[in-house]
Amino acid sequence: MRVAIAEDSVLLREGLTRLLGDAGLEVTASCGTADDLLLHVRSDPPDVVIVDIRLPPTHTDEGIRAAGTIRQRHPGVGVLVLSQYVEVGLAMRLLADSAEGVGYLLKDRISDVTDFIAAVRRVGTGGSALDPTIVSTMLRRHRVDDPLQLLTPRERQVLELMATGASNQGIADAMVITLRAVEKYVSTIFGKLGLPTTGSESRRVLAVLLFLRS
Amino acid sequence: MVTSTRSPPGPLSLGLVGAIGIVGTGLAVLLAATNNDLSQPVLRVVLIEWVAVPFVVAGLIAWRRRPDSAFGRLMILSGFAALLSTLQWTGLPVVNTLGRLSDLLVVALWLHVFLAYPSGHLGRRPERLLVVAGYLAAVGLQVIVLALGDFGNRHPLTVADNAALAEAAQNVQLLTLSGLCLAGLVVLAIRRRAGGRVRRRVIALLVDSFGLALVMVAALLVFGTFALPGFEQLQLATFGVVGLAPVAFLIGLLDARLARGGVADLLIEMGADPAPDLRGPLARVLRDPTLTVAYWLPQYGSWADQDGEPVTLPEPNDPGASDGPGGPDPERVFTLIERDGEPPVALIHHPTLRDEPELIDAVTAAAGIALQNGRLQAELRARLQDLHSSRGRVIEAAQRERRQLERNLHDGAQQRLVALALELGLLGDRLAGDPETRARLDRARQEVSASLDELRDLARGIHPAVVSGHGLPVALESLAARSTLPLTLNIQAIGRLPEPVEVAAYYVVCESLTNVGKHARAGSTSICLELDAGVLVVEVADDGIGGADTERGSGLRGLADRVEALDGRLRVWTPLGGGTRVRAEIPCG
Q1: End-to-end CA distance of chain B
Q2: Which end of chain B is more exposed for a tag (fewer CB within 10 A), N or C?
Q3: In a domain, B282, yes or no
Q4: Best of B445, B466, B506, B513 to mutate (most A CBs within 10 Å, chain A)
Q5: Contact B286, B258 (CB under 8 A)
Q6: How many CB pairs under 8 A join A and B?
Q7: Which of B416, B440, B462 corresponds to the end of one domain?
Q8: B351-378 confidence digits (pLDDT tens)
Q9: Backbone angles phi and psi of B432, in degrees to 5
Q10: Are A108 and B421 within 8 A, CB to CB?
């Protein structure tokens, strides 16, 4: 899998390059600015870009704007946004129309090498990766007549994993249950929440998020 | 009390000038009576006296009342010039020449008088050029006419007798003067339009009468040049109007004198209200709607009006200075009122008010205490404004520092810790075997992660980077998502706003939600954000127990400071048992 990186801290940029290289991914470009990244993506589109939200010159939203541009102009390129903060509001913006090939993770997640590489691979193949803190924040809110209260703790756990973009296999591995059991949980959850079942895993990320947001 | 730079003329000067006027007037009558060649001698002498006597009389009055202004002396001169021209009715050689030379001098002087009103000085370069051209045409071309024989009248100046050339020179002279009068009219019209502000009504009428006089003189000169029919009637009408101009001027003076009757009303008005709006009544009594009252504030070292807004006094009109278009406004002068020991008060007014220093004295004496009250009020307002802007500066500086601090944390400690965590992760990944070492590495990594979490919370508390980075709607949605209560978010699509506004609105919501969580015992909350005619309105309402303490603990005071520093307003409704509603309205500059 081919990856391009945009991160202004040299320390992190080199660490990331090493990490991805060690995991057998090919780093095609390692840039310090959003413009640089856009140029590289245009001339040599990778499978996925990893982009820091705060990039020069203003260190405000250059990264998120670059992510939007890439999603619009190169729909085949996955976009994984990294940030020191994860904001629910920004996640909703990022996933506005589709969770396909989109990721939004806290920067510290890169220290959990296995999970991080799995997330990069998922985004690079059209899946999603949403930071668990976003999902757990949204789950904490009380709702009037909350259908979430109908869920068993196990079902809730499956829902959380599902919302972060994990595949059925990923959920099965994480919870140490069979793939069939996961499928059963998923259809029960969708039934209880009154959501139509969808085929693709990234589509169900969006469905769950929209449900949690309301 | 009222400062004058020049003392009024003494009775001797006035008497002397008056005597010259009387002698001149009598002499004109005598010359007309003794000259047998003069056609219609009665009419001609009446016309001359009609444009001479009023100017001299009005000029003497103006000179005495307004010694600072050259206007009175100019009027006297123009009256004398008219009388001087009657010397041409005598047969005495040199005297006759003098009379002939000054034949049209009075026309140039009229132009000068009308354009120099009210200060007596010509303000701008075009006006000066016009007047100088007027004198050159009136006297210079007249010399040429005389040199060319003056249509058969021999003069010491005559060098050739050429009636055709003399007539041509005279026609040029008359038409030039006519054109200059029309140009003068244009100057008056431009001045009137550029003035813009309301002037004293009597003054406006006076200036209009000057304009009318200029038009008629211009027309008369053209009629004279081409010997058009109706010249005599026009001459009567023109001289009539010109002679009325000083009368209009005197009416203006009388109006100011009558105004003194208003001082009694002023006293009554002041008595009724100890701290009235002084400007209005003073403007009424002084009959100058443009009047400004300025107070000297010693501790600020500046002038301020009643609302504490800084005021610049007009430049003193210095006749010697060359004032181009950027020079002092000829229509604004100021009068200082000084009382023993008190800081001065300045009245900024139309120069014509200088006609009546007694009126200003009477009015300021009547308004004395009130003026000092007004000064205290101006001082108070200025202090308030000062306080207001210094609070704004303090909050802005604090915000700037916080933003920088957050940025430093983000680019420094946070990045380094992430890099450290990454290093630990890589190390753990490469480490085969020895489960204990791996476990300890993992723990270290989690410690770093926990530190990062804490640092994140700290940084977020220092400055909400999400607001400056991604705008209010995104930030509020994140804020709302963290709320554990059922919450409705009603956000109108607004673009990016100035950062201080966005940050203040964010803090209003943030702080209000914290209060709801801590004190309100609410079942649900709602956040509403909209932009209404350039004012950002943000409202947080809950259905809790109400009765929030708006002064202590709740942070509402700090919010109000923040919002008010941006000229906004924070209001809180918190009836017992009726929920709490916090509403901030912040203008977006």
Answers
A1: 44
A2: C
A3: no
A4: B466
A5: no
A6: 117
A7: B462
A8: 767 666 777 777 777 777 777 778 888 8
A9: -90, 155
A10: yes
Of B419, B429, B468, the CB nearest to A15: B419
Distance from CA of B425 to the nearest CA of A (A): 5
**pLDDT confidence band for B55 (50 / 70 / 90):** very high
Give me the CATH topology for the region A2-130: Rossmann fold (3.40.50)
Q: Looking at beta carbons, which residues of chain B come within 8 Å of A7?
A: none
Locate tokens 């004190």: which residue? B519
- Convert the pLDDT of each residue in B487-533 to its tens digit: 899 998 888 999 899 999 999 999 999 889 888 889 899 999 999 99
For chain A, which residues make up each domain, given as ranges? 2-130, 135-213
Q: Which residue has the higher pLDDT, A113 or A202?
A: A113
Give the end of a domain, one of B357, B383, B409: B383
Q: Which of A105-114, A139-148, A201-210, B458-467 has the lowest mean pLDDT?
A: A139-148
Tell whether B527 is covered by a domain: yes
| Same domain, yes or no: B484 and B526 | yes
In the numeric block, the tokens 């840039």 are attached to A31
* CA distance, residue B498 to nearest chain A CA (Å): 15
Residue B204 confidence (pLDDT): 74
Give the CA distances from residue B508 to residues B36, B391, B518, B521, B582, in Å, rounded to whole numbers and listed in that order: 99, 18, 15, 19, 8
Mean pLDDT rounded to a whole number for chain B? 84
Asked if the Cβ–Cβ distance from B470 to A64 is below 8 Å, we say yes
Confidence of residue B320 (pLDDT cuts 50, 70, 90): very low
Residue B467, min C-alpha distance to chain A (Å): 9
B525: domain CATH number is: 3.30.565.10
Based on its alpha-carbon atoms, the radius of gyration of chain B, rounded to whole angstroms, reads: 40
ipTM for the complex shown: 0.91
The SS3 of residue B223 is: helix
Using CA atoms of A12, A16, A17, A18 in order, give the dihedral in degrees to the nearest 10: 100
Domain shared by B510 and B447, yes or no: no
Q: Do residues B93 and B169 both lie within one domain? A: yes
Q: Which of A82, A85, A88 has the highest number of chain B CBs within 10 A, making it the mutation to test binding with B?
A: A85
Euclidean distance between CA atoms A161 and B169, whole angstroms: 108
pLDDT range class, residue A109, cuts 50, 70, 90? very high
Decide if A141 and B485 are in contact by the 8 Å CB cutoff: yes
Q: What gap in Å lies between CA A95 and CA B68, rounded to an integer?
A: 80
Q: Are residues B180 and B118 in the same domain?
A: yes
CATH number of A135-213: 1.10.10.10
pLDDT tens digits for range A173-192 = 999 999 999 999 999 998 88
CB contact under 8 A, B419 and A9: yes
- As a whole number, mean pLDDT of residues B198-209 equals 70
Query: Which amino acid type is present at position B307?
Result: D
Taking any CB pair shorter than 8 Å as contact, residues of chain B touching chain A are 407, 410-411, 414-419, 421-426, 428-430, 445, 448-449, 452, 456, 459-460, 465-466, 468-470, 473-478, 481-487, 524
Q: State whether B89 and B157 are in the same domain.
A: yes
- pLDDT for position A175: 93
Give the CA-trace dihedral at A171, A172, A177, A178, to 10 degrees.
Answer: 140
Please report the pLDDT score of residue B149 as a whole number.
Answer: 82
Q: How far apart are CA A187 and CA A180, in angstroms?
A: 11
Give B311's strand partners.
Answer: B303
Pairing of strands B569-573, B580-587: antiparallel
Q: Residue B351 belongs to what domain range?
A: 288-383
Rounded distance between C-alpha atoms, residue B141 and residue A142, angstroms? 101
B322 and B429 belong to one structural domain:
no
* Total domains present in chain B: 4
Claim to verify: residue B107 and residue B254 sit in the same structural domain = yes
Same domain flag for B364 and B480: no
- Per-residue pLDDT at B470 exceeds 70: yes
Answer yes or no: is B269 within a domain. Answer: no
Indicate the pLDDT class of residue A55, thresholds 50, 70 and 90: very high
